[in-house]
Amino acid sequence: MTSTQDLRVAAELAPPRAFDTACRMVVDYLSRMVPLDAWVVTRVADGQQTMLVTTDSGYGLTPGQTAAWSSSMCQYMVAGAAPRIVPDTRAVPDLARIASEASAHGIEVGTYVGTPIVTGEGSLWGTVVGMNRRPVDPDVVDQEPLLDLLSSLLSSVLEADTAAVDSARALERAVSDAETDALTGLLNRRGWERWLEREDERFRRFGDPASVVTLDLDDLKVVNDTEGHDAGDRHLRHCAAVLRSTIRSTDPLARLGGDEFALVAQVGVDDAQRLVERLRDALDSAGVPCSIGAAPFTVAGGFPGACADADALMYSDKRARRGGHRGVPGPRHQPPDLPTA
Predict the structure, then answer these.
(1) Beta-bridge mates of residue 51
(2) Cα 267 from Cα 282, distance rounded (Å)
(3) How far apart are CA 75 and CA 44, in angstroms?
(4) What's the rounded mean pLDDT across residues 99-118?
(5) Which of 13, 57, 123, 335 is the most exposed place for a label (fewest CB within 10 A)?
(6) Which residues are in the GGDEF domain (predicted)?
(7) How many whole angstroms separate alpha carbon 67 and alpha carbon 50?
């Protein structure tokens, strides 16, 4: 490409401020200029590579599909152990090995193209990936300047969009009285639902890791019946204080009504499970034990799906605790298989 063409591409793709819109424009543009069987923008977080935007004619890839980063060809590109454009994956041993493993499952990756998307601080955020079932003409390597330009544009849009979202969140944390539970000072159900509604689109856009945790305070009715409702209110406030002291201040925490609480831990699955265990230990030690369920946010299911899964696991935990068995907060959700790239 000439420098004039570079400027034209930049002018065409730079204006969108919403990151997902820019991603869609980039993969659509690449599918026209460098027609491979698939172009994908992925998010790399929590040891997983999640597809956010896809254009596909050969693999059946869809947004939300996830694979382990350790099985991705992109790990070698990011580490500098493989070129950004590999017309024939058989020419690079690490990529050839992964391609052979994928072929055993009926997934052919003859060509690999990849470039990193980085944050404003320079850390890896995700990748732009192209794949073709068969090796392509070696001249495709001439497209590396275009690939670098487009990934740089996405990095710039990501930084601007992230800053805008952070500013909006800061304003939204000044919650109105109508969204605050008067007894505990936490979000009430209305505030919780409004938070989920606002954030669902943002988390889908960026593919950020998160888990919903729901809690049901054990034996509140017993406290109310034996010691009175003032004691029950103190019990609820004490539970809220323990929860608040155990989670990060930026994680939303709500009392949904009665003896139900909920929060969103903005971390990956492993860290969320460790948080659940810390919560359980802290609540038990403070004399306010709770039944707990936790489920991860996914691009496909969003927060509605995570809330439904967490509720089901919390009620399962409650039944197990009533039966004298300590419940399991939530299983590790295994991601669906997808072509490694």
Answers:
(1) 42
(2) 19
(3) 10
(4) 95
(5) 123
(6) 208-332
(7) 7
